Amino acid sequence: MRAVDGVSIDLHPGEVVGLLGHNGAGKSTLIKILSGAYQADSGDILINGQKADIRSPADARRYNIETIYQTLALADNLDAASNLFLGRELVNRFGLVDDDAMEAETRKIMARLNPNFRKLKEPVSALSGGQRQSVAIARAVYFNARILIMDEPTAALGVHETAMVADLIKELKAQGLGIFLISHDTREMMDLCDRVSVMKNGKLVGSERVEDVTEDDILSMIILGKNPRREAA
Amino acid sequence: MIGALILISLAFNIATGGLFLSPRNVFNITIQTVSVAIMATGMVFVIVTRHIDLSVGSILAFASAVAGVLQVRWLTQDLGLELGNPLIAPIAILGALLVGTLIGALNGWLAGYQNIPSFIVTLGGLLVWRNVAWYLTSGQTLGPLDRTLLIFGGAEGTLGPTWSWIVAVVAAAAAVLAIWNGRRNKARHGFPVKPAWAEVVLTVVIVGAILGFIAVLNAYLVPENKLKRIFEARGETMPEGYTAGYGLPISVLILIVVAIVMTVIARKTRFGRYIFATGGNPDAALLSGIDTRWLTVKVFALMGFMAGLSAVVAQARLQNHTNDIGFQDELRVIAAAVIGGTALAGGVGTIYGAILGAFIVQAIQSGMGMVGVDTPLQNIVVGLVLVVAVWIDGIYRKRLGVR
Ligand SMILES: Nc1ncnc2c1ncn2[C@@H]1O[C@H](COP(=O)(O)OP(=O)(O)OP(=O)(O)O)[C@@H](O)[C@H]1O
Ligand SMILES: [Mg+2]
Prior knowledge:
The complex is a heterodimer of chains A (233) and B (403).
Chain A: E1 16-21, H1 27-34, E2 45-47, E3 50-52, H2 57-62, E4 65-68, H3 80-84, H4 99-113, H5 129-142, E5 147-151, H6 159-174, E6 178-182, H7 186-192, E7 195-200, E8 203-209, H8 215-224, H9 228-232
Parallel strand pairs in A: 1-6, 1-7, 4-5, 5-6
Antiparallel strand pairs in A: 2-3, 7-8
Chain B: H1 2-15, H2 23-48, H3 56-78, H4 88-112, H5 118-137, H6 160-188, H7 196-219, H8 224-233, H9 250-268, H10 270-280, H11 282-287, H12 292-318, H13 329-339, H14 351-371, H15 375-400
Helix pairs in contact in B: 1-14, 2-7, 2-9, 2-12, 2-13, 2-14, 3-4, 3-5, 3-12, 4-5, 4-12, 6-7, 9-10, 13-14, 14-15
The structure holds adenosine-5'-triphosphate (ATP) and magnesium ion (MG).
Adenosine-5'-triphosphate (ATP) binds next to helix 1 of chain A.
């Protein structure tokens, strides 16, 4: 089976590209190739025109690619700070992990993302879905990413928290990050993205600038798998 | 859990008319527990990463066989080192540690890189290694062992009262320092700290426990005959009315060092953090760039190292290598870790819990032996305690609302 077949997508600095498609279209699989979780059978990843060699999540991090996974990828038994710094722990001069420093950093970033966040000492299994998502978002934005991948980052968030993430995306975009955003909310995508790409059954239906299409155009691309603008032309 | 151990001890103490908590018995239970307790610390990491090691008893036997053969054959008969050569003990110990570590690493490689369930890998190892040891020794008991090596067994190697007190004071000072340091660090980052009185009470309890334990071990006096022999060996005569306490056995000192090192690894190193992360969510660990397969090798190698270390302690305590050394230790070790709060589902467990668990198992078994319960019933009770402990733990966690 081919979950993703012959898909090609560009992303520029300071740009948000939305990835849309029905459930099982292959969106998560595509971005997992970029984040090193899966390896493509064929095809290349180019960063700044150079071929990037990404074979593991650690490789992707080395290229400053940060990912918020749909499953969040949190270790439920560890607290927020341990999850935020997982794989990149702060250490003291003896090489031992410095929990207090990590907790202090976590407090700082969480104050920006989710000011109501209090449960710093508890394992993340004790957090609500939205709080867990905040931790996953904090982890991706803390480490100065150049490319940020967000797979349904607001799926579990409340209205207020969703608005904060939208603001965050605009802020990061202004800082020159390239962002891949996956969401099923076409309204939100029209608002946040510069371009949208639609996938169906593992294939790319089309990529369009949001100014050039209507919400209905996007919906018909998702559902029918056809690009109405190209058909008309 | 400390409460459970105290309760069990007091109950047996009453049932035995004060014999159970006599210095002599406390000393004996302590040195009997050391080898299982050392391995239990390694088993915590294995179980936390969602694996199991059923082969530890057999690894112990094989490592012990290698150390034994080194002492009585290879180094002495074959290489011609004279008996009592100071090189024999270190080489034999290194041999045991190396063998244990390598077998552990092999287990980890099979489980981590070849994706064979660790239950199967180590069930195989359980059968393989004890019998490889049998071929190595032709099933014979190996002895007498090197005299230097015997000091790691317990009764033959103790620090004596003075040094024991020094260790106690150092340990107490370290505990006070650690508590104080932790508090200062928290305050520096502006985190909430416990009320001062709670911290003082905790400190007093810990310092009291350390000093009390050493006092009991020092109160166990070396038998007069043995003292006489020691004096005779030095060509002196024993002064009238001379007494000496055993103090802290070197094997227990090793256990304390292991406990501290393993706790630091668990809580303060990246390696430890990754062990717990992998146990909590293997996918998340992988996506965070953790090499979980190599981690599996390291965890099993560490377990094997502990089995090698326990092999030295066990053969020194028994004063020879027998083919059934460490027989069924895997059961005691897993029971100790699980009674100590390590969850088989992974991600949860503590080093001190596993060590306490080892003491609980040994206390129950020895206590029942002293009360006159026969071995089959002892085993039945230990088995029930294991199940009930996990049951109660589950109920307790549910009440607290933790997973
Ligand atoms: N681990 C896996 N093993 C086998 N097939 C998989 C696996 N993960 C995904 N698939 C399949 O690959 C296809 C694409 O899945 P993917 O998760 O990329 O979809 P998606 O577009 O992210 O959907 P959603 O909107 O539901 O998140 C699906 O048909 C799915 O069944
Ligand atoms: Mg998806």
